[in-house]
Amino acid sequence: MKTTRRHFIKTSAASAVVLSAGSTSLFGDKTVKPLNILILGGTGFTGPYQVRYALSRGHKVTTFNRGKTHPGELPAEVEQLIGDRNGKLDALKNRQWDVVIDNPTTLPAWVRDAAQVLKGNVDRYVFISTISVYTDPPPDGVDENSALQKYDGPDPYKETLEAMRASGFKTYGPLKVLSEKEAEKWFPGKTLVVRPGLIVGPRDETDRFTYWPVRIDRGGEVLAPGNREDPVQFIDARDLAEWTIRMAENRETGIYNATGPAKPLGVGGMLDGIKEAEKSNAAFTFLPYDFLKQHNVAAWSDLPVWAGDELGLSRTKIDRALSKGLEFRPLGDTARDTLAWFKSQPQDRQSKLRAGLTSERESEVLKAWKAKA
Questions:
Q1: Dihedral over Cα of 292, 201, 160, 148: its sign
Q2: Cα gap 336→319, rounded to integer Å
Q3: Mean pLDDT along residues 165-172
Q4: pLDDT at 10 over 80
Q5: Which of 68, 106, 221, 222 lies 20 to 30 Å (CA to CA) from residue 180?
Q6: Is 353 helix (H, G, I), strand (E, B) or coil?
Q7: Average pLDDT of span 338-359
Q8: How far apart are CA 201 and CA 227, in angstroms?
Q9: Higher model confidence: residue 223 or residue 153?
Q10: Is residue 367 over pLDDT 60?
Q11: What are the CA-CA distances from residue 302 to residues 2, 110, 228, 297, 351 (Å)?
């Protein structure tokens, strides 16, 4: 079955493995008013980056999670509350924070249940959503006012993660839409909704971007997708995390798409940038979409980041976020850091990428192309 960009984002975002965080070398900004921040989650992909950046800027940080993933890896300064979004919220009761950042929520009941405890005890609610909330985008992309997916299932408050997975993640976007609305219902005028695109960088266990630094580092002839000018969008998890904290500092509300880079980037430019950063001898052979489709090579799963025939979602408009200071580190930094992180993983983890073509499959498709030519 063809794996579309939307489906691959949903699947990987909903099932990504929680990772440990590397250290940062940031210095506190003494001009920032210290906040008391509650992070729901905090041990996932972006959460530990949020934690460390917030601490570096002088904020007090509390996390709330089950305490089962990489216990003991967060800095000692972090207060860690143990509980579960499925009804075990007692640790949040009778406590006050300036802002809560809700990272892991897909189910609207999770927002409702947490909000019932936190309302009146938290000044602002930051909900991390996704650009998968949008319906099929037009060729020129979507902005924050574009049409959203609609939930057409049974009682959404009775939905479970197991049911969402059983649906093939078809309900992922619609449930995120309802979760956004639930946050605004409980914290009217005090809610910030961040809609990230593809999140990449070190510690991403889905390999949605990692495939390219790893493959290009290996060198030789590399199968590249589509046309060089086909747009790609992604955001380093560290850039997303740090901007989210700054938005909280500035008491921002409203809805913001959050992906990058700041200016349009083609898949050819992305691959060239990774090659340059790694000083690789890779040579790219671009194969057209129709040929790839004929040979059952899918965008996003077999050739990550590239959107195939869904290029509209890779033109998501981010003008609002840029106007609020969203910044991006150089592509080369993300590529080198991602490769270094991957090479630091156990050998069994490195032995099989979770996205992208195997060497054998890549060679097979390139051979078919040359035979056709």
A1: negative
A2: 28
A3: 92
A4: no
A5: 68
A6: coil
A7: 97
A8: 24
A9: 223
A10: yes
A11: 10, 33, 17, 6, 16
Residues 36-61, buried b or exposed e (16+ Cβ, 10 A)?
A: bbbbbbbbbbbbbbbbbbbbbbebbb
Q: Which of 82, 80, 21 is nearest to 53 (CA)?
A: 21
> The tokens of 279 are what?
């000083």
Which run of H or of E encompasses 254?
strand 254-258
In the numeric block, the tokens 């898949």 are attached to: 267
Name the nearest CA neighbour of 331 among 196, 195, 216. Answer: 216
Give 314-326 as a DSSP string: GG---HHHHHTT-
Nearest in space to 111 (alpha carbons), one of 85, 129, 78 = 85
- State the first-to-last Cα distance of the chain, in angstroms, to the nearest integer: 27
Question: Residue 19: what are its φ and ψ, rounded to 5°?
Answer: -120, 165
Give the Cα-Cα-Cα angle 150, 151, 157 (nearest 5 degrees). Answer: 140
Which residue is it, tokens 């919220």?
A: 89
Q: Which residues lie below 8 Å from residue 132, measured CB to CB, with a gap of 6+?
A: 6, 9, 10, 13, 149, 172, 173, 176
Question: What is the pLDDT, as a whole number, of residue 16?
Answer: 43
Task: Sort strands 199-200 and 122-128 into parallel, antiparallel or unpaired.
Answer: unpaired
pLDDT (average), residues 188-194: 98
Using pLDDT thresholds of 50, 70 and 90, give the confidence band for residue 27.
Answer: very low
